[in-house]
Amino acid sequence: MIRKTLLLAAAVAMPLGLLAATAGTASASSSISDPTGPPATASCTLSGGTFTFKYAIGISGLGYVPPAKNKGNQIKVAGITMTCTSSVVSGSFTGVAAGKIKTANPGETPATFYNCTNLSGVSPAPGGTLSGVLKVKWAAPAGQKFAGGKKTDVVVNSVLGGANMAGDGTFTIPGNPGTGSISGSFPGSDAGASSTTTDATAQTESQLASECTSSSGLSTIPLGSGTASLQ
Description:
Strand content: 35-45%
Order of helices and strands: HEEEEEHEEEEEEEEHE
Structural class: alpha+beta
Low-confidence stretches: 1-31
């Protein structure tokens, strides 16, 4: 009697075990794990987006009147579309970058601090501070998961302003090479220290300069295209 009971229990347990194993296999095959954490990297092209200053900047004495007090500034970054490839992702994928950058230099006069000439060279200037984070929200390809999460945070601690061959303004993050920082997906092997992003303005330097001398100053910079290396 005991033997029959044991055999009956084994007969019932066997299909249940097979069912559980089959369910586990089906669950595992429903999505492909994608190792986008360290040391994964990504190469991207950039398009669109804007930089918007809380307090407009300009060139005083040529029509623009700076704020009466130096209260620092805040730059809102919005709508930068990133189209990327990576050796750990099957096919191309996209993301959208946005964030805020705060900058200050209490030792400067308003005419000096809110000046368009600060768009060139490395910011912050001596005695100043600059900090912010650009958050990238990824749209992973169908059937894939990003191990580092569906986001990448690019820390901004310096910006290099310049120009390209077409006469457009450019912005490179970080402004000081080798000082980048990334958390989330695609941090490379050094947490993003060697990462770099360069974006061009949709307007030429002369067009931006014209706005800088207007009474309202320059408050928004539309962006054109660029490249980013997350590593």
